[in-house]
Amino acid sequence: MNGLGDVRLVLRQQELQEAGRAAPAASGAVGGRRWTLFWRRWRTRRALLELSAEQLADIGLSRAEARAEALRPFWRL
Questions:
Q1: I need a labelling partner for 58 at 20 to 30 A (CA). Which of 5, 66, 67, 76 fits?
Q2: Considering the entire predicted model, what is its pTM?
Q3: SS3 letters for the chain?
């Protein structure tokens, strides 16, 4: 493995931290962070569709799993 699994863990940790900060939705700034998180999810899920079979194998996903993840709504973890 070339470290892409570690990248997934770091991105997941960042997503959880941002979700934790966005949880007490009281102000417009918090809503802005939530949209930032949503956009990141949308972009990264779409990026899965562009990975080669070798890249998917490096991160431990099959083509079917990557496609299923990419098609999930951005508001779902």
A1: 76
A2: 0.52
A3: CCCHHHHHHHHHHHHHHHHHHHCCCCCHHHHHHHHHHHHHHHHHHHHHCCCCHHHHHHCCCCHHHHHHHHCCCCCCC
